[in-house]
Design goal:
Layout lengths: L1 H29 L9 H19 L5 H24 L1 H8 L3 E5 L2 E2 L1 H6 L4 H9 L9 E6 L5 E5 L23 E5 L2 E2 L1 H6 L4 H10 L8 E6 L5 E5 L1
Antiparallel strand pairs: 1-2, 1-3, 3-4, 5-6, 5-7, 7-8
Amino acid sequence: MNGLIQLDFWEMILRTTFTFFVLLTLTRLIGEKQLGHLTFFDYVTGITIGSVAAEIVVRKDTPFFNGMISLIWWVILAILISYVSLKSSKARVLMDGQPKIIIKEGKIMRETLKSTRLNMDDLSMMLREKDVFSIQDVRYAILEPDGKISVLKKEFKQPITKGDLNIPTPIFTNLPSGIISDGKIVKKNLKELNLDEHWLYQELQNKGIHSADEVFYAEVQSDGSLFVDRD
């Protein structure tokens, strides 16, 4: 009896470990998408892959290699469909759907609402998530394939930008990047910014700091300046 339990234990450990690494590899092959941007096809694919993997790991009566074949073939099909969708706009519309205008020139498109199975409560909630509390403030609202809504407000409700007021703005040369963390210089980031340690130490001395050990975190800003948070 103990031998049987021990055999089952190690079999499940091996199944789980092997399935984990196979699933990790396959999901990397499929590609990356933010969870909030998944289309219906991506959602179904993710659930199916997870279900098949769970069957392989948990169900002892499921032949291991049969389950692996099913898992790998499903991923291959998903990759093929994604490739076809990438090359064909018609296939992309068929698999992912297309954006639908639900408010046009301030007018609610009732037929579109009906076809997408949205009611006014759903629409109002989605607009509030975009900081729009009145439909009369909307010129266009578009339902995207991932289920999110894009909103173009009417002109008098759009925020004023620096460009509208002709206010000069600094030119950003790079993304903010940390170059010291916990007193250690991040040489990789320095190199990507085309900077060296001589420049860094000069900037630190200008701030009255004599060693990187005195710095908890330092970051090069978009305008090239250095932000420092000391210990």
